[in-house]
């Protein structure tokens, strides 16, 4: 489990990005739920923590793809592939993330960079 | 409502078809598309697709296995709407009858008079346009872009990265002054000079010379700009000729209420062809943005399925983006009503700017260059501001 941040430091409607590889973001919804998903949009290199959080959905700040925080599913294009979701545990006022063991769906530019090709 | 015809199979048409099914419409759904292709994403056509970084499969808008239980009629154009029969007539002679109709026929690229017939002269709107232009850019040489708007600027940026010698000719004194205002138009279009792309402003185009392939662009002031390839990026006109005489009110596109309704019951319009009433501006505006084509169909479909009784939410301010020379340009709101523009963060010299447009002290629009996080903060604020 990776410690993310203190619950008290993440107000409702806000997101916190963990700078791990690939980065993960923790969202605190207006209804008080907490979710963790991969931070990078599966369409192009953009941080979903900078996105528009509405209900259980986050909209990518660049091209407005929407992802369901509960399942990672794409709710609106141009993204086609889901983001990974990660288990969240809150213990003694601290938010922890249990990273998924599935392969991430990174956008083509990032995937190419990781593979050593041109970005 | 048992049958709905969606006329137009690009983002707005696809979004309407999705919204119909999401909202529980289980009747017959027919989607009519003029192009032979399944719905595809247009923004990359001037950027990653034109650069050869992504292929056609990457443009597909439908998800794997997505099935809207629709009947798709591709490669056929709507030529008439018959209000008595509630029928859409197609160019191939077929007729589609429907209780509800969604007009999503988009817009077509404007061309220069006399530009037809010369090889190497392009407009850019469709996948077929992009394929043809990509092939010509691969030849290298000199590209002249007529029009310094967003399409022209993105094509110039892509061609520059491909190694072409690029000149932009813009009739107005400042490119992008319409959407961004003079001051910010100047800052964003300075990206061209940063990269050695020539920008000729305040001069019109008299004509093209060459044959069979274009060889030069002739300017109003007598100058001649040599060209191996020319892109005409002078805007788009709404594709609504087929609605003339139908009873659907037209002005600049289809005149719609703030919920997408047209002047005919059971007919709504969405996307680039639709001029929705904007309660913030107190006027009709035809918005040619990707986000509008994706977001508004849901509202229009709610209107259609409820016969106009659905309550509409407050629409978000329009938002668009442009990627040029690796700089992310983002804009939300309307620049036209602003009486001041201030740079809140960053500096124009670094092409790293967050600028806020205000009217009587209240924010009405925001521009970001490489400032996605700050931009989103302001964009959200615009959505709740009562301007």
Q: Can you characterise this structure?
A:
The complex is a heterodimer of chains A (119) and B (387). Chain A has 119 residues and is mainly beta. Chain A has a single domain, classed as Rieske Iron-sulfur Protein, CATH 2.102.10. Chain A has one helix and ten strands; from the N terminus they run ββββββββββα. In chain A, a hairpin with a 6-residue loop joins β6 and β7. The longest helix of chain A has 7 residues. Chain A is globular, with a radius of gyration of 14 Å. The model of chain A has no long low-confidence stretch (mean pLDDT 91). Chain B has 387 residues and is α/β, with parallel strands linked by helices. Chain B has three domains: 175 residues, FAD/NAD(P)-binding domain (3-Layer(bba) Sandwich), CATH 3.50.50.60; 124 residues, 3-Layer(bba) Sandwich (FAD/NAD(P)-binding domain), CATH 3.50.50.60; 59 residues, 2-Layer Sandwich (Enolase-like, domain 1), CATH 3.30.390.30. Helices cover 21% and strands 33% of the residues of chain B. Chain B has seven helices and 27 strands. In chain B, the strands form seven sheets. In chain B, strands 3-2-1-7-20 form a five-stranded parallel β-sheet, covered by helices on one side. The longest helix of chain B has 16 residues. The two termini of chain B are 37 Å apart. Classes of the chains: A mainly beta (119), B alpha/beta (387). Chain B: Pfam families: Pyr_redox_2, Reductase_C. Chain B: GO terms for molecular function: oxidoreductase activity, acting on NAD(P)H. Chain B: This is FAD-dependent oxidoreductase.
